[in-house]
């Protein structure tokens, strides 16, 4: 064999070897390529396709069904408002002597916020106290009865009146005789009669006073004195209240969110201060009629505040049975705790509200679901084999579905690669797949 012939044979052998290698690549690789294509992202509900029965097993990722509590949610916007806020005004128009807190200061209930001039009110209290003491003394005297000295003095007055009466009686008798003998005029007799009448009246009055003094005060008099004492007590309370009203205190604990007062100014009828308690925040959201009947009072909510990048849990505290004025939506009140006071009144929140719920149900990822002719199905993976199974979806959200029939807890279903499966096809499972 010459050199030229050897070169030709070598080239032929090389060509044959190349064709054999190419044929092996084309026939061996398609199954692997087919298994990886179309299975990339779960989530979309596609339709399974018929695979070549002679192809190699299809690679898939699986998810496992589990039993748990399911919720579906909507997200709405709401504005934060203080749960408690009190406006402070004063009925007294007088000068401010001191302001003890400033805007933004934290205060406790009954802290002294503003003081008004008390010079006039102090005098009013002193006068009311004096009037009360006098009324109490008068009532005590009436209740305890007269002193012995007072009775003795009145008895002496009675004796004096009696002596005077006897004297005038004797005088009148003499004047009467003299008049009969025409020694005196009729006018002189009348003067004697008048003196006798006056002496009789004085005696009767003294006797009556002595009788009353010994008997003590009458019920009517005691009632009158008790009424005077009560009026004196009320006047003192009124004076003390007026004094206390000049010391303006905080009605709740919170933060001074508004203040319109300066020492030396005269207080007006306008709002003087506002105390805001933001330890609890109230949110109001307006909900469509499509979801209002899905909400429940007491249900847990989540509120995310973008301005402070924090999420808080709270609860629904009130659901209105009627739409708000000028709106076609229903007001829903929610409450969250704000112990660090980082949420301020007026901040906006994105609130998640539960609109559907189911407890102790079988749940699977949406990545496993397929749909055909309006019906849902999945591929159960067991013993490296895909088994098509129809399922009924009871509730669902973006991530999960509640299966009411066709699936048991703990079963594994194809997710990534599910569109490439058919009933009975062999599969290889890869790591991955979440619940």
TrEMBL record:
Gene3D superfamilies from the UniProt entry: 2.40.30.170, 2.40.420.20, 2.40.50.100, Helix hairpin bin
Any one Pfam family match given in the protein's UniProt record, by short name: HH_YBHG
Domain YbhG-like alpha-helical hairpin: 116-239
Classification via InterPro entries: Beta-barrel_RND_2 (IPR058792), HH_YbhG-like (IPR059052), RND_pump_MFP (IPR006143), YknX-like_C (IPR058637)
Signal peptide boundaries: 1-28
Residue ranges that the Swiss-Prot or TrEMBL entry lists as coiled coil: 109-242
One MF annotation (Gene Ontology) recorded for this entry: efflux transmembrane transporter activity
GO CC annotation, single: efflux pump complex
Protein keywords: Coiled coil, Signal
SUPFAM superfamilies: HlyD-like secretion proteins (SSF111369)
Family per similarity comment: Belongs to the membrane fusion protein (MFP) (TC 8.A.1) family.
PANTHER family reported in the protein's UniProt record: MULTIDRUG RESISTANCE PROTEIN MDTA, SLR1207 PROTEIN
Name recorded for this polypeptide: RND family efflux transporter, MFP subunit
